[in-house]
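Appendix B. Raw example, untouched.
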Amino acid sequence: MRAVPAKGLEATAGSWPDVRSAYDRARRAASILANEEGLDAAGVRARYEDLIAEMARDAVAAGSLREAVGHFLKVTRGYWPGLLACYDAADLPRTNNELEQCFGSYRYHERRASGRKVASPGAVVRGPVRLVASAATRLRPADAADLAPSGPVTWRRLRGALDGRQATRTLGRRFRRDPAEYLRSIEEALIKKTLPS
């Protein structure tokens, strides 16, 4: 039985220096992001930028993990604008796990209440209202004062946004039912609009 791990270690011996180096850098990145030293946002950003620069400089030396390091750097560049925002705002969580749990709980309860196996299309259209209501009722029960709009301007703005989402979904449904007819109606409307009467 001991021969199997020994053979595996022997066969992969050439990759271990690259794996150790990459693991060391991943551990350093996690340590910087954990911010155990309590640095401010600028300090975390500077340390993380130094690590990223070091990884970019030594990417060729990563050997068999060169592609993985390149991918890590590419993804980091893509997320960079919002990657360290949690260090600028005191109450912003470092991960979106809590947000994912909130959405998951909403989907679970909606499925239980409606009997549907898939999410309701109404969650897309009415999401800003339904999700907020779902999250708020966990904090405390809602009463009539909570349901009243805060003012006519706010209510109209919210209503307009919801109506806009509903209109978009309606157009999508019309397109899915008969794409040729939908496109023909758009072309006719454009022709009428551009031709002089």
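End of appendix B.
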